[in-house]
Hints:
- Belongs to the NhaD Na(+)/H(+) (TC 2.A.62) antiporter family.
- It comes from Desulfosarcina alkanivorans.
- The protein is an alpha+beta fold.
- It contains 30 helices and six strands.
- A six-stranded antiparallel sheet has the order 2-1-6-5-4-3.
- The radius of gyration is 26 Å and the shape is globular.
Amino acid sequence: MFFILLMPVLAWAEGGHGAAASADLTGTVFGYLGIIIFVLAYALVPLENSIHLRKSKPVLLAAGLIWVLLSIAYIRIGDTHTAHQAIKHSLLEYAELFLFLLAAMTYINAMEERNVFQSLRAFLVSRGFSLRSIFWVTGALAFLISPIADNLTTALLMGAVVMAVGGDNKKFVALACINVVVGANAGGAFSPFGDITTLMVWQKGKVQFSEFFNIFFPSLVNWLIPAAIMSLAIEKASPKKVDEKVEMKYGAKAIMAFFLATITTAVCFHNFLHLPPVAGMMLGLGFLGPLSYHIKLHEGRSERYDYILGARGAESVYPITTIVKSKLDLSTIIEKVDLPAFAIDANHTVTHWNKACEAYTGIKAKEVVGTRDQWKPFYENKQPVMADLVLNYLPEKMIDRHYEGHFKRNEYISGAYEASRFVPTLGEKGRWVSFSGAPVKDETGEVVGAVEVLQDFTEKKAAAKHFDLMKKIARAEWDTLLFFYGVILCVGGLAQFGYLAAVSQYMYLDLGATSANVIVGFLSAIVDNIPVMFAVLTMDPAMSHGQWLLVTLTAGVGGSMLSIGSAAGVALMGTARGTYTFGAHLKWTPIIILGYAASIICHLFINSHLM
């Protein structure tokens, strides 16, 4: 990455020419520092799951520093206006993307809360399909759902189906996850709603909404060829049928219909009213407001206001800090706690189950201590409890999958989390419970187990049980949205220095548009496709409509080559930890590259009149 960013400096030294406003800044110390800061900050992004540093933090810092350097560089040549106007342009770019994604994420979260995706998952895992059938069904659904629900959400949904059916069959789970990632990325490439890169291309007006379907068949080829070859490695056995049934909540179908209406509104705003699509998306978000109010009335909570965005509920959380940081023996302190509590060792075996836990769950300590049955009081089917999740230091996306956004980090203990959910198996009609889990460490700092404390708040929850639109907005991926801010400001700043103009000269004039656009796909497998595509749009090279379709395709599907090349791949590595890995994906990279090449050839053939 560092070499790529330095190429324009070398090209400039050889006599390249760019925009006049940026030409004199490419060879300044401020420009060099800007490149170094961006490279260092972006180098931390792929390490997010390893070092537990959110990807938004380094790029936010880099964005601010780059614009400070740019402003100083302009001031030194007596220009106090250009930097100001340039950053306003970048902020406008971000505002459109931010509001568009905020509306889309809110609808996705609303559908998840109404059990839309969960019911689809339950339907698939209870059909009794063979492993090879599940492989094809999940891949096909990933390809078909991602154009609407985005590739990340689709990959997590289909990945959950794969893991539920595949169980301990690691080979099948790994292959099916690869297939889901390739399918989700390919499906997202021919729709503005399928990926951030396609959305940016549409908002820039480079490709009209209907024109994205020109790359439908190339996208299909990109998924079908690797899928057909990988399916030959899937055994024909049938897994054990999983009996699971999830009903969609009241209003789920209406929310789906309103989401489709919102997409239609955004397209109509762009095509017929000549307004930004984001204005149509925000109008669509307005559709959801009256519907959410109707659902709240239906659930009988009309006297309660929705929580304001960012506000927390009044749920009290037990200070598990006192247990973990106590100097007393774990058995002693857990028994002294008057709330239900239990502990597990490093092998996820129950070691302590206090009397309060016996009374609350109805399960005696002698029945559960020494087993891995800590899940039985809370779930009908085996799945990890909070203690299991914090013991494995699983990413927050995995915790979110189990607690649907109703969780937060403990402010005082590293690796500890607090969550809440309704448990239908407790009591006669089910109970609302808060779960606090934390890892337990020995004197050397090594994790030797985990402890979990429960607190019932059914009565408090009854006073606020309704569909809350503000909570759906608050559950948007704020880290992702802030990451986009950092990327757009960083790339915008480097463009203002003049570097992207020189890169455009090298790639699109010296190498040619087709070669450059193919390289973009390979870059998006190594570097996130968002900054790569935004850089291309900022360069705005003069090329045919067919070439804009080509770069849309390659940036969208190129990330499938590596597991770290797309958000879908990174997310599945977290949920299928130890099974779907970088190495497992890398074994099939040549086959995926074959599909990548075939999709490009397909595009060059069927869209030759546009090239």
